Predict the 3D structure of the following.
Amino acid sequence: MTASRRERLRSSRLYVVTDARSDAGDLEPFLDAILSAGCDVIQLREKDAEAGDVLRWAEVFRRAADRHRALFVINDRPDLAVAAGADGVHVGQNDLPAAWARRIVGDDLLIGLSTHTAEQFDAAAPEADYLCAGPVHETPTKPGRPATGLELVRHAAARAQPRPWFAIGGIDTGNVDAVVAAGAKRIAVVRAVTRAGDAARAVSELLAGLDGR
């Protein structure tokens, strides 16, 4: 399982971060739609939810990910990632350090780490399996977090970084080409898909942008 997860991570290009959706009945069809369209990684991000609710929603994410052979990640909580049978956990700079997260999740689960500066990107903990670099553009998902612009993307692309990394932050179908031109091969998005009128179409268009089409 360890090799399989990391192999799938390395081949992943589009990572969608979403909450559990306001309408619970909409969650499973939404996940199936974006995964069928080519999304590779789904993250359940519910900052203020209780553990029981996260685990209940995680069952839906896990089933959907399994149907489409996608990766399922939980935000912030290594303990819940283990309890939910997720493929990994994503932590930020002010969350539990990746080294401690590794002690909780063991060797098999993936760990992702957010980076917001060139210094953070270069100094990222070796326990992290992948990095996110951004936010490239200002986004309400990260209030108060200044945009890095494309400079951090260029910095990341210029490094001989053995780990996969994803550009993140305000990326959508209108600017993905510029992010790709700056050197990104993978992107993580929130609103570009979760707020789209047609989520599956948004995924397809973002993938086309990654392909230079």
The mean pLDDT is 95. The longest strand covers residues 110-115. DSSP finds ten helices and eight strands in the chain. The CA atoms of residues 21 and 27 lie 6 Å apart.
